[in-house]
Write a structure and sequence with these properties.
Blueprint lengths: L1 H10 L12 E10 L2 E10 L2 E6 L5 E6 L4 E6 L4 E6 L13 E5 L12 E8 L2 E9 L4 H22 L9 H9 L9 E7 L4 E8 L16 E3 L7
Parallel strand pairs: 6-12
Antiparallel strand pairs: 1-2, 1-11, 2-3, 3-4, 4-5, 5-6, 7-8, 8-9, 9-10, 10-11
Length: 231
């Protein structure tokens, strides 16, 4: 794992080493899991976050930051699932204890920002390993925090349909009650969840020129709410 992180740091492009303010930041990741490896790409602007997960022919996600609204576009279904921020009404588990352990290993810095390895635990279970670069890309960290916090209310609603015995303390922490805790120590250049799905930063670049309308959604697609799904 440490060697992979070293390779990541060596692969960062020269464009990642500029302090020039940028209206749009491009982030490229590799995500690895049971189904293989695939790319994840993100565009971050002052008003939007766009996420392309795997093959863009399948669709994409646009997060409108001020409106706290997520648009999940499906090209195959010619539809857009619209998620609005909603309060978390799910009751917190009675036993719900969280810890953060910082490993003592020494890691190379990224763009002059120190990188540290944190283990995030809930009820003694290791939920996340995060390799965070303190002070790196604060604009992207803010956008991702807003995105995960917006999604938390919908995740909480989904948890209410699950039998209590199937609710994982890690899932409740990471998706509902502490959805941005993996961002608390800086930008995650590498993160591994409890299912061993790994997301690793490959490169990033500021001041990226983007096409007009890149943060828009298809106007001719049917817009749906979560309650419409399955009808």
């Amino acid at each position: 794992m440490k060697r992979a992180l070293f390779l990541l740091l060596a692969a960062l492009t020269p464009a990642a080493c500029t302090d020039k303010p940028s209206p749009t930041i491009f982030l490229s990741f590799t995500e690895s899991g049971p189904d293989g490896d695939y790319p994840v790409r993100m565009l971050v602007s002052e008003k939007f976050l766009r996420i392309e997960d795997g093959d863009t022919r399948d669709g994409f996600i646009v997060f409108e930051r001020a409106a706290r609204t997520i648009y999940s576009v499906s090209h195959s279904g010619k539809s857009t699932l619209v998620l609005h921020a909603r309060p978390v009404t799910l009751a917190m588990p009675k036993q719900f204890e969280h810890r953060v352990l910082r490993e003592k290993e020494t890691l190379p810095s990224v763009d002059g920002k120190s990188v540290a390895h944190y283990r995030l635990l809930t009820n003694g279970e290791r939920c996340f390993d995060v390799y965070a670069a303190d002070g790196l890309l604060p604009e992207a960290v803010a956008a991702l925090r807003e995105y995960h916090e917006t999604l938390a209310g919908e995740q909480a609603a989904m948890q209410t349909t699950m039998p209590a015995g199937m609710q994982s303390a890690c899932d409740l922490a990471d998706q509902v009650f502490l959805p941005a805790r993996h961002l608390a120590h800086g930008f995650p250049v590498r993160q591994v969840n409890r299912a061993s799905v790994t997301r690793q930063l490959v490169s990033y670049q500021r001041d990226v020129p983007v096409e007009k309308g890149i943060f828009g959604v298809p106007k001719d697609y049917k817009q749906m709410s979560p309650t419409d799904v399955g009808k």
